[in-house]
Structure formats: C-alpha cells, structure tokens
Design goal:
The protein is of the alpha/beta class and 533 residues long. Helix content is 42%, strand content 14%. The chain has helices spanning 3-15, 32-48, 89-94, 111-114, 132-137, 142-150, 153-163, 175-184, 205-212, 214-228, 242-257, 288-295, 324-336, 338-342, 375-382, 416-421, 440-454, 460-477, 483-499, 503-507, 510-518, 520-524, and strands at 20-25, 55-60, 72-75, 79-82, 104-105, 191-196, 232-238, 273-279, 319-323, 352-359, 365-370, 392-397, 403-406, 430-435. The chain is globular.
C-alpha cells in the first residue's frame, strides 16, 4: 500500500459518513448484549422514520461515563443519553426531528467530559473499532508511513526521548531510553511485546483502549518494531477480556489484508507480524519477565535481572516490553511531534494519563487528564464526589502496589514524583475512591490478601510474608491484637518490601504502610485492652 491509497480510503470513508451519527457504546462496560439490542432498535427506528439517508447508527467503543451506561451519543451535536434501553430508541430518533425524547440526557457541559484532555482516548467512542477504514478515516497508520519513509530509526528514538513519554505500566521508565537500549542491543532477531495483562482490582484502562481503538495500539507496536529492528510482536492479554481479544484478532486480520501488517509494509523491506497470547489470569504475569516466561510456554514466574529484557528477553533475544497505553501514545507523538507531547504535563511527567475511576464516587468511568492535574479536581469535579450526601475519605492509586491517599492530600499533583513522595504510585491507572464509611484496615487487608493469593510462590518473603501480614491484619480487625502485633506488622512489611524477588512482593506492603501512615488511629482503636503502652 502507498500513502495515496491510504489517503483515498480515508477520503472515501469520510464521504460515506452521513450528516448525523448515532454512536452506541458497545464496550464491556455498557453490557455488549444490551448495547447491540439498543443499536438494532436504533437502526429500526431510523428506518421507520425514513431517515436512512441522513442518519447513520454506529457501534463504537467506550464513551467514558461507564456508571451511567449504556450510553448513546448523537454527533455532531455531542448529545449524550444515559442509561438507555432498547425501548427508548424510537424517542431518541424522534428527537432528531425536534420531538421530546423519553431518554435521559446528560448536561452539555457535564464536568466529566469538559475537564478531560484526550490523547490516547481521542477516538474512543468516535470510531467503529471493528472497521479499519474508520481508523484510517481519522488519520490511522499515517504515523507509521511517516516513520518508515521519512524518519530514520535514530530519529524515531530521538522523538520518543524528546517527548518525555514514560512507561504507563506503572514504573514510569523513560520509553525513549528503553527503545534506544533495545535498538543498540545485538541479536539475530528481536521482539516487541505489548503487556495487556491488566490485573489490578478496579482497573480497566487497557481493556477499554483495546476494545475501543485496537489499531492505535497495533500502529504503535509497528513503529516500535521498525525502530528497534524487530519483525515479530506479541500482544499478551488477559483471558478475562474476550471482547478485546475478539476485536484485536479482527484488527490484525484487517491490517494484514491491507498490507499494514505482515510483509513489505508500505512497500518497504519492513516486515512485522503480530500474534496474540492469552493469559490465564495470573496477576504476576503483569511483571515483564514472568510475562515472557508465559509467552515461551513456561510457568509465569519472574526471572533474575540483570540481564534485562532489552538485552536478553524472549528466548534470549533482545525484547522491547511496553504496556498498552504506552504504545497507544506513539502514533500521536510521531504525528504531532515530540514537542507537542512534551508541552503537556509537568517537568518530569509529560503527556496525559488514563485512569479508571471507580469505587464510592458519583461518576465512575474512564478518564484522561494531563499529568500534574490535582487529585482533588478528579475526585470532586470530574468524579462528582461521593454519591448522596457522603464525603470522600481516601483514594487508592496504583492498585495492590500503590497506597491510600487521605482527603487532606487531595491537592497533590498527579505525577510520578509527587505520588511517590506521599507513599503511593501512579501504577497503571487504577483509582479507587472510598468514603467515610470505609475501614482503611479492611482496604489494606483486601489488597494484602489479593497479593497473597496471586504470589507465584517462588520466594519466601512474598509467599510466607504476605500470608503472615494477612494473619496479623485479621487479628487486628478482630480486636485481638496488641501494640506488639502492630509493631510486628510494620517490621514484617519492611522485610517483605526489601527482600522479595520481584515487584509483586516488594510492593505488597504499600497499602498497609500508607494506611498506617495516614490512618494509624483506626489501627490503634482496635488494639485490645491488654495492650501495654
């Protein structure tokens, strides 16, 4: 395929769009079975009103405000209907002719939508994720063409370094530096791996991206493969994400058919094949060396580092591992330039970040904000605060590896360094909100038990230490613990944190340590009367 052909497809597909588009969310959050019934009902209503020449009904990805789903959006007026049912379809279509709709409409200036800045999610909810033509219509695969025909591999690396993009999987390692290391590594062949093993409780960022805009991730992987010299990619995804897997499989087939994946891409010597590997639900496989062991067909347990995957990864060859959101940023950086991306965010944390906002909050869903946004703006403005008349007590960021942030620290800037200073981490983007009815000891115990269950068992500190932490927390919750038990818990957290083999064990104490730091009074209130001060 040549650029002219790509542009012709984009132009033809744009011309095929009708003046009015009814976008029906068909992602997991909006219950695909119900959403498909809504889509069919809307199509029938359009036909009944004889509006087929003017109105187009489209199945799209996540529209963001998942707690109000199923959602339907009318373009170009940007009208969003919430909690839609199939029987409301006729009134939604009738409203296009000026009649009153029975469906509930969200406010035009709803802060959930107006306070966001979308880069990764720019086309989520606007394109059909199962039609490659719709992705091409909005500029898809033009960044790949530009990289292959107009940039050297060193220039792509320089662009990624200049952009300041850091890995969105949790550690925040500079993406350009990782790409440069793999590009310089020697090996008979190299691999690119996309880590889609999203396992944090309450997290659904990667799932939504893959369901809503799969070609965006594939294009990012292809640019990365060209840059580091790889010809094979693997997309490792959780088996619990069947819709994302289905849409990725379809996207890969479409890419091959159009010559955008496979051999001699864009009439060049660049070849890139992508295969999907489905995980079996092991949380530890989110750790990159365990993930690679699983791809190789072995048990998903971490390996010693060094050597790092950039030098010796899959089957001993240099391997680039990035997560879904990281790859989803790549095409935009190549298309708009590294300075455009670097101008967003803070000095040390560039760009935007996607979060899954869940828990005891009015507006749950998928959001994207610039790095450096105050946590309070997300909780109170975008999230709408606690439902009813409650108040928010804390927010957990970073999943089982993160920490609980109290309400009096909600003015903290959401960037890697600021979160680390207050005892939490960015993580992959899970954000769980808790109100004043929540026991923070229960929260800590939930995450410790999760890590205990998900431990691969390879090292004693994680395998045994998390179990002992859980036992002590259970003892505290039952009111049978003494101050000595509390001291023992803190000592145990320190041991597990500093002696565990991989990131799972090393970060497992974080929820306990952060709740002890900010909510110690809740622990001390449950100590037994036999406590000796």
């Amino acid at each position: 395929m040549e650029l002219a052909e790509l542009l012709d497809i984009a132009e033809e597909w744009q011309k095929a769009q009708k003046p009015i588009r009814i976008c029906c969310c068909t992602s997991t959050a909006c219950q695909p079975t119900v959403s498909l019934a809504i889509k069919q009902a809307l199509e029938e209503a359009v036909a009944a009103e004889d509006l087929e020449d003017q109105v187009q009904v489209c199945g799209v990805g996540c529209l963001g405000l998942c707690g109000k789903g199923p959602l339907v959006k009318i373009e170009p007026d940007e009208i969003v209907y919430e909690q839609v049912s199939p029987d409301q379809a006729p009134s939604i279509v009738a409203a296009l002719k000026g009649e009153t709709s029975a469906a509930s409409k969200l406010e035009p200036e709803h802060p959930f939508f107006t306070r966001q800045m979308k880069v990764v999610l720019e086309h989520s909810g606007n394109i059909d994720p199962e039609r490659i033509e719709d992705y091409i219509r909005v500029g898809g695969y033009q960044a790949l063409y530009h990289a292959l025909h107009e940039m050297t591999t060193d220039e792509v690396v320089d662009a990624m370094v200049s952009s300041g993009l850091r890995g969105r999987g949790g550690a925040g390692y500079p993406t350009g530096l990782k790409w440069a290391t793999v590009a310089k590594s020697r090996g008979e062949r190299k691999f690119v791996v996309c880590n889609g093993d999203e396992g944090d409780p309450g997290a659904f960022m990667d799932r939504s991206i893959l369901e809503s805009d799969p070609h965006r991730v594939l294009e990012g992987m292809a640019i990365a493969a060209y840059t580091v010299g790889a010809d094979q990619g693997f997309l490792y995804i959780r088996g619990e994400y069947p819709l994302a897997i289905k849409r990725l499989q379809k996207a890969i087939q479409q890419g091959k058919r159009m010559g955008l994946l496979g051999t001699q891409i864009f009439e060049t010597s660049f070849n890139f094949r992508v295969d999907i590997r489905i995980g079996a639900g092991a949380f530890v496989c989110g750790e990159e060396t365990a993930l690679m062991a699983s791809i190789e067909g072995g048990r998903g347990t971490p390996r010693p580092r060094p050597p790092y995957p950039a030098e010796s990864g899959l089957w001993g060859y240099p391997t680039l591992v990035n997560n879904v959101e990281t790859f989803a940023n790549v095409a935009s950086i190549i298309r708009n330039g590294p300075k455009w991306f670097a101008d967003i965010g803070t000095e040390g944390s560039k760009g935007t970040k996607v979060f899954a906002l869940t828990g005891q909050i009015a507006n749950t869903g998928l959001i994207e904000v610039p790095m450096g946004t105050p946590l309070r703006e997300i909780v109170e403005d975008i999230g709408g605060g606690a439902p009813g008349y409650g108040s928010v007590k804390a927010v957990q960021t970073g999943g089982p590896s993160g920490g609980c942030i109290p309400a009096d620290l909600f003015d903290t800037s959401l960037d890697y360094e600021s979160l680390f200073r207050i005892g939490s981490i960015m993580g992959s983007g899970g954000m769980v909100v808790m109100d004043e009815t929540t026991s923070m000891i229960d929260v800590a115990d939930f995450y410790v038990e999760f890590c205990m269950d998900e431990s691969c068992g390879k090292c004693v500190p994680c395998r045994v230490g998390t179990q002992q932490m859980h036992q002590l927390l259970t003892k505290i919750r039952s009111g049978e613990a003494t101050r000595d038990d509390l001291d023992r818990l803190e000592e145990l957290c320190d041991v597990v944190r500093h002696t565990s083999f991989c990131g799972l064990g090393q970060s497992a104490p974080n929820p306990v340590l952060s709740t002890l730091r900010y909510f110690r009074n809740e622990y001390e209130a449950l100590l037994s009367d036999h406590d000796v001060v």
